[in-house]
Amino acid sequence: MSAFLKVENLSKRYGDHQAIDNISFEIEEKKLFVLLGPSGCGKTTTLRCIGGLEKPDTGIISIRDETISNNEEQIFVAAEKRGMGMVAQSYAIWPHMSVFENIAFPLRMSKFDKNLLASRVEEALDMVQLKGLGTRNATDLSGGQQQRVALARAIVGRPKLLLFDEPLSNLDAKLREQMRYLLKEIQTEIGITAVYVTHDQSEAMGLGDELIVMNNGRIEQSDQAKSLYNNPKTKFVGEFIGTANMIEGRITQKESNSCKITLNNKNSEQIIKARLSRNTDSEQGMLLFRPEWISIQKGKKDNQENSIDGVVRTYQYLGDRSELIIETEFADIKASVTDDEDYIVGDKVTIKINENKAIVF
Amino acid sequence: MTLSTQNTNINSIIRNISIERSLFWITAALMLVAILYPASMAIKAAFFENDIFTLAGFERILQLDTIASDIWNTLIFSAGSMFGATIIGVSLAWVNARTDVPGVKAIEVFCVIPFFMSAFVGAIAWRLLFVPNAGMISMFLTKHGFPEFLLPDIYSLGSMIFIQSVFYSPFMYLYAVASFRQMDPTLEEIARIHGAGNWNTLRKITLSVNGPALLSGMILVFVMSVGTLEVPMALGSAGGNYVLSTRIWALMNNMPQDVTAASALGMIAILIAAIGIIIQRKLLGNRKFTTVTGKGYKSKKISLGRWKWIVFALAITYIIFAVIMPIVTLILVALQKFWTGSFSMQFFTWANFNTVLFEYDVTARAIKNSLFACSVAATISVIFALILSQIRSRNAEAFMGLLVLLPIVIPGAVFGMMVLFAFVKTPIYNTIFIIIFAYVIAYFYLAYRTIYSVRLSIHPELEQSARIHGASWFQSTRRILTPLLKPGIVSAWLMSFILFIREFSSVMFLYRHGTEVMPVVFFMLMERHSARLAAFMVIQTAILLLIMIVYQRFTSKNATGAAF
Question: Is B345 left (phi over 0), alpha (psi -120 to 50) or beta?
């Protein structure tokens, strides 16, 4: 499929701060695309550039091969002419209008047929499960309801592209989850393309057909959720997505896809075999593995392959799994196992790291 | 069980009768009496002659040929000024708060100056520019062949509205700019994303969301215009355009004096103000827009593009009209031996300043009187505001809301007359304290709101912990609260002082020989000696600007907005 939204070499600077640093990406039609990253990484600025609320310094943005922003050609289509919809973090419900009028606003602006307007608004209200609340004063609604109104308002005009700027972060945890399902359902149902900005990785992974992880104004990795988790391309992504154990070491043997890394300590040394993320000239490496990429054996078993000895420091049984922190000579290691073993703090254990999963950067 | 509950009740009542509560309610009651007593005296004056109920005052004013035109002029003048001030003030506020116009900081400072300079000073300056045959601009233009009939008539109702609008627009500005800055900018951005251009966003979102705040400002400008003597006296009376306030003043001060008719007219003025307020309440309904703000992306201001410099030029035009031109005019006139309508080096002199400062006893006395009365009144206002902002209970705050609102709704000139009635038979009548009284009551809301808003930001635990550690109420107030409130106290004092020193409408009823304050002397000099008048006005403006500089240095701009 060809690209629906295309962003090429986008940059934006505020004074000394390089908010976006020459990024490019493409989005396919009808997909929900997530921009994920810590605050200040440039994700919101990118979204605002797409929406036309911010004028980029360089770069081209186009929708279906129609350029909406191009600095070199001096093209900058105004926000109101881009035909998009947006849901903001602060809901941005207009307090002086009823729920109905809030939702009808995009239709009124586009001179939508007045006879069909009411039914279209009702339809949108129905979609966000607020049927019958149209006459209410918008500010009388709860936060969750207000965000639904904002969603209805964003989709009522059938925009080309839907923009979400951390729409769920003002809601409490339970509502957030409900909204997440509703949002995904509506997006798939009406088949709309969406760009979604968030710093919450579980939200991002749950919603996104495709994700971009951003850091310091650059794209770290663009992938599907599963790949981001299992095959992080950079240390940053490995650390930012999910939980990760990280131990520094010396790369002692390199092959095309795998390597051996020697973990050093005053007293001992341990060689771990793992995947090599990319060819590095550097001797120094960083071993990264997730808590569930290890298995635990009770007792001390010297010099087993890919294993580290340790002592259980904390143990929490969580029903579907157990979480432990194991103190070793090299680092404290977080482990998550699904075995039914009981552990006691102080138990001597051996951790075996899955060589097909762990990665060295 | 019942007994112990009763005991707790009694205990809690006893605990509640603490020093601060008593002090609060005593002060609040005093303030209420200070407002209601003069009001009741004015009502009495309107409906009673020699202690007998009568409608004679109303009958007499209905017989005046001018009554219809006075009321009509008042309505046109007040409504016109309200809209004029709103258009100017809201535009400037929008430009400063929401757009990328260059030089925002400088424009901002100049935007508030005209209000403090006072409309009377502004009107006199404009009069010196445009008075037929002797105005600096009108003479210059006619000399260069500009047809005389095209010159604006400075005494016309239109000119009065224009000048009142220019000099009261800072009031709207302060209301609007605070409201614009508090608004979540995402409200506008979302509108733009969903298809609203600049104009629709401004009209349907920005102005509508801020509607309640703007409406409150508008109604205050309306009421102030109903009660003002400034522009109506400086321009209207000379041109034969009387409004209710100038008519009331004439009935009180010209022979034969007619107190009953003046009071009856005062009732009509209050009625007009009240109708304005009722209309505002109706429009407002229950709407008070509170908005949820996100943790927030600092929104980019609206880019004006090539309009930027046009908007900048308009803002500068306002500043020239409202600040620079009046001040320059007054300085030029003040430096002339006598005013001939144009500046000439031949008549250059510093003597006018010397005269009004040291030689002419009335002006010299007025400066002293003004400084004394305004300092005392500002100090009293601040002390009262401190006491009255202490209590945080629903009752107390509701009461205070009412208390500070009452004097605002009484038109200034009528308020002056009320205070006069209240004290006419007391020893205070002939002293400057009657003026101090009027200052404090008329503008108390300003000191109160300023200190109250700072007070709200101080967490009660700060005082509670002082009390727990053994400090009495007095000690904790003195050692904990007062230092924390200091910025509020200083800004309240300075703001009050500025407003008092320029107050014209009410003191015109209250001065006697020996208790003249500066604005009164403006009036006395108005038809007598333009050059000395200008010199005197320059001195007052210099004092005001000096205090404003101190004020700006001392406080953040936000405190000003919060106070209104």
Answer: alpha
Beta-carbon separation of A89 and B186 below 8 A: yes
Strand partners, A327: A311, A332
User: How many degrees, rounded to 5, is the angle at CA B483 between CA B479 and CA B489?
Assistant: 130
Record: contact B193-A163, CB cut-off 8 A: yes
For residues A97 and A22, state if they share a domain: yes
The answer to whether B410 and B418 are in contact (CB under 8 A) is: yes
Confidence of residue A89 (pLDDT cuts 50, 70, 90): confident
Lowest mean pLDDT among A25-34, B403-412, B513-522: B403-412
For A210-255, the pLDDT digits (tens) are 999 999 999 999 999 899 999 998 889 998 988 899 988 888 888 8
**Does residue A225 sit in the same domain as residue A305?**
no
Instruction: Give the span between the Cα atoms of A205 and A225, in whole angstroms.
Output: 5
Using one digit for the tens of pLDDT, what is the confidence trace for A267-288? 777 888 888 887 666 788 889 9
Q: Of chain A residues 124-153, which have a CB less than 8 A from chain B?
A: 139, 143, 146, 150, 153
In angstroms, the separation between the Cα of residue A172 and the nearest Cα of chain B is 14
Contact B194 A106 (CB under 8 A): yes
Collect all residues of chain A within an 8 Å Cβ-Cβ radius of residue B293.
90
Query: Residue A88: which of B197, B200, B294 has the nearest Cβ?
Result: B294
Give the domains, in start order, of chain B with CATH numbers: 19-335+346-563 (1.10.3720.10)
Residue-level pLDDT at B158: 94
Q: Are residues A230 and A292 in the same domain?
A: no
Q: How many Å is the maximal CA-CA distance in chain A?
A: 82
Q: Do A163 and B187 touch (CB under 8 A)?
A: no
> Which distant-in-sequence residues (6+ apart) come within 8 Å of A26 by Cβ?
A3, A4, A5, A6, A7
Contacts of A151 in chain B (CB under 8 A): none
Name the DSSP class of B459: -
Same domain, A189 and A274: no
